Amino acid sequence: MTTSEKVQAFIQGDVVLAELYGLSNGDLYQIAAQGKRFFEEGQEEKARKVFEGLTALDPWDYSFHTGLGAVYQKAGELDRALLEYDRAVSLNQRDVAARTNRAEVLV
Known about the structure:
Mean pLDDT: 94
Structural class: mainly alpha
Oligomer: single chain
Radius of gyration: 15 Å
Shape: globular
Strand content: under 5%
Largest sheet: none
Low-confidence stretches: none
Order of helices and strands: HHHHHHH
Number of helices: 7
């Protein structure tokens, strides 16, 4: 697919931004792994940037929304966390992490 065709497909909603940039799922998951490391190391602002970027690059991947929800939850941004967990669950009903964290926020 040519660049022009990719742009047209993006405009029509047939491809996500990651595909427009030529990023594979493997590339995105490597980036997500780094975001998770940032989160686990207490570098929440870096983790936020990673997961906000990932949700923009591929808004249809539930795990990126779950990761972003966790960042927001830890930052005390509970409304934003709930929104991300809801998005994750709407994309994957079996996302245990999103369901569990969402319940924790609601309690």
